[in-house]
Amino acid sequence: MKNQQARDIFRNYLKNGKNRITPERFEVLESALEYEGHFGADDLYILMKNKKSRVSRATVYNTLELLSQCDLLSKRNFGDNLTRYEINYKKQTHDHLICVDCGRIVEFTETIMKKLPEEICDSLGFNFESYSFNIFGRCKEPRTCKAGSSKENKINK
Ligand SMILES: [Zn+2]
Ligand SMILES: [Zn+2]
Fold it and tell me: How many A from CA of 39 to the centre of ligand 2?
């Protein structure tokens, strides 16, 4: 089965933390794995509702929290105080460039960002845990900006 490995990771995590293993939680996992890009808890909830899922809003919220605790999802904040998630599973580490006008998000991977946070930690007497790094800018091409062509953008509006 597709995503079996992710399901196993989640099942073990729930078991070890003495969290209940419910079909609803796995339904949230499946939907999150299918979601392309970055999403808020409500985006996922609405999507699931539209597919006639009976999962409650509270379950979506707390399951996303659990999924980020076991690293299947990453939590992001793009400067608008809205927590967004994205799948971490089988995905390369990357950072984000965000347009302050239209909210378009572009992902990039810079090799320097793989080493720099750990080096800074090391030199200041910390053990590295995680880092967050966003660049804010404006689309140069007005067409790209206004079009709101990215899927993400439509969903978050
Ligand atoms: Zn991303
Ligand atoms: Zn823009």
Answer: 18
